Amino acid sequence: MTDRSRDRAHPPLGESGITEIDWTFAGADTRRLTHGVHSYPARMIPQIPATVLSHFKREGVIGDGDTVYDPFSGSGTTAVEGRLAGLHAEANDINPLACLLTLAKSRPIDPELLETARLRLLDGLDRELRRVRSAHDAGTCELEPSAVREGWFPEPQLYELVAIRNRIDELGEALSDTTADTEDVTRFLRVALSVTVRRVSYQRNGEYKRHRIPREDRKDHDPDVYALFTDTLRENAERMRSYSQRVDHAATTTVHYADARDARAVDDDSADIVITSPPYGDHSTTVAYGQFSQDPAIIADRCGYDEMKAVDKTGLGGAYGQEPIDDLERYSPSLARTLDALRKRDGRATDALSFFTDFYSVIEQVRRILKPGQPVVWVLANRTMSRVPIPTHLIATELCEQLGFERKHLIPRKIPTKTLPWENAPENVAGQTGEMMASEYVVIMRCP
Ligand SMILES: C[S@@+](CC[C@H](N)C(=O)[O-])C[C@H]1O[C@@H](n2cnc3c(N)ncnc32)[C@H](O)[C@@H]1O
Q1: 137 and 69 co-located in one domain
Q2: Quick check: is 298 in a domain?
Q3: Residue 194 and residue 97 in contact, taking contact as beta carbons nearer than 8 Å
Q4: Which numbered atom of ligand 1 lies nearest the CA of 40?
């Protein structure tokens, strides 16, 4: 692995051509390879890390065998692209489903092993699910329902989902005698189940928060669990086959199910580049990652109900926030101006301050983890609060500068497709609309 911390003259960090790139990537396939195995809210498009990585490789800033770190891994876009670029990947996330997806999407699996596992899982599954249905109808089903909230799933489909999960567990135990990659395989199978869980539930399509289809429509919601699961698994396995042929199987992905404000499991000076898209506000008033992940994680990965409820509280600016830092406004004049504007409105200044206090802790961690002179790439979406625009790209840049980072590029990026609830009310009041996110920026800075 390259140790650039000892380099005296730092490489130029994108002086040549990075601002000439068309960062909209209109028409690009954002679901290519394993990026298409599962949806995730506010997913970063893979073209951003792919472009950044190939640019910095060309410039000699990073090389094969280096490490890319992402403090906010989400569905693992950075990890997947890092591995495709020949790097090791390391990441943090507080959402167990995000950790599952990051590992499942970025660790390559031998296609033959995956095919063997897929066929074993499907062998007799159709019959078994029919038995589960009959037993349910006869009142003799002995399966333990998962700890999901009542009223979110049609029955007997909920029991069919549990039966598939149990089969994956059993297959894992059986395979562990013959292969060391059992967990990678079963994790990948769970992803297809997680997709199926969302489709089978009463969750409304296209919503990241927990909203059910209207009560009167629920009796007509009679999904075919077997077909949904097997189709998803076939498509996902095909995506993994293509991905696995392109990456170095000897590289590694390490994911920490832990808070990025205190990323103690990640070593000092261990990353050669950081590429990340942070949340753009606290989870409960912006994107509720925990709500999105709750049922899939509980059923497919046996996560606990309370564990999943804690995700949105641990998000930046959430209920488990830190003590305010008195000088934060002095560090960032843009933050000071924004808080003043919010104070004149309605007091949401406290929420904004709490979010950026948490953000500042993550920047401190990034400075510790990133080797001196190496780049951090923040993909930052701006939002409004109480109709006050929050210039996150400027605030983050100024907070980084306070910690000694050098500002290299602030590139505005137009977003051609709507992947987020743009028309949500900024105050999160049902029925009111307003521009939730105005723009996105790719901010490139150099670590001191
Ligand atoms: C915008 S998403 C990242 C999306 C990701 N780049 C992708 O392409 O899927 C932000 C992520 O940050 C995570 N997150 C929020 N607060 C966190 C914290 N304190 N520590 C670690 N992860 C956190 C959320 O769970 C979410 O997965």
Answers
A1: no
A2: no
A3: yes
A4: 9
